[in-house]
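By convention, each integer encodes one residue's backbone shape. The lines below illustrate.
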Amino acid sequence: MNPHLAPVEVPDPAALTHVQRLCDIPSPYTSGPEADALFEAAMAESNAWHAQRSPLFRALLDDTPEAPAPTVGAHTRAPLLHANFFKRHEVLSIPRDEVFLHLTSSGTTGQKSQMFYDRWTIRSAQRMVARIFDHYGWITPDQPVNYLLYSYEPAPQLRLGTSFTDNYLCDFAPAHHTTHALRHTGSGHAFDVHGCIDALRRYAEDDRPVRILGFPAFLHFTLERMRAAGTPPLELPPGSLVVLGGGWKGHADRQIAKADFYDEVTRQLGIPPERIRDTYGSVEHCVPYVECTHHRLHVPVWSRAAIRDTRTLQPLPYGQPGYLHLVSPYITSVPAHSVVMGDLASLHPGDDCPCDLTTPWFTLHGRAGVSRNRSCAVAAAELLKGMS
């Protein structure tokens, strides 16, 4: 068995039987009544787990129930906790000595989320990534590749979730050579655009596939600089792959339409559109969302998504934009199994996508305003303050 797909055991098999069963489902886009019933049972176990270990979550669970979202489950409790809450508070459901990994979000300004994982939580999330990569045939242990990583070069005390994820993705194909775009300077990181261009030129002359991972903005800046310098289009070897993640961060003012960006990558690097995929995820919610061949972010079997009205937090029907609400019982270290993200999105039924996946998918519409983001976080903070 591939080591990335190896079994992982929940912290308490008796208390988390259904969580184990749900996370053991090998096919990432399984759907249907049986999967829904298992998800509901797993969420009930996760709620009980955190209620016993987190006074904050116990208070949320005892408070007025949130309006249930049909896409999560009509009888599934999923109290609303905003991702911004984790930028201000450390709330654990495990003792500190059981923390296996500590990561932070990669926001460019303001406070960063501090997230803590036990071994089960992070290994379970990694196995989800591996299963999706396996689903698309992207685990190639016998095919070395060249990597261009648009993420942070490893450095002492670097705990960014994006860096951790990109380095983990390098385990799915052996590295012949690796180039980091954001080089460690000794006091921080700097974007080495010329080093990226030189790497692409070298890799184009090699017969090994190239894997480009990381922030899309920096890949766009590289291609932009190549055009400005009159660099002719390159033809990267067959089997090359682009997997993007982390958004445009502090460069939203220079963001271009996704279709235009993908056309740019195909035109200048020779990578076909079906080999270019964006992803969505966060340190607060590590379940991976990876675009299908038609570039839709389908929801995997281990999670559920809903859209909440930005004013009332009521669930919205398919097609209407609002806060993205993500729910998964996999996490046992922190009560972050029902998180309202700071992103605006709309949800769509699976059959609205021409691919063969049947689970719902969502479209991102940008970040919500800071003042609105604070509503759920402030409510949770008041609960926390009342218990201190």
Summary: The CA atoms of residues 308 and 315 lie 5 Å apart. The radius of gyration is 21 Å. The longest strand covers residues 338-348.
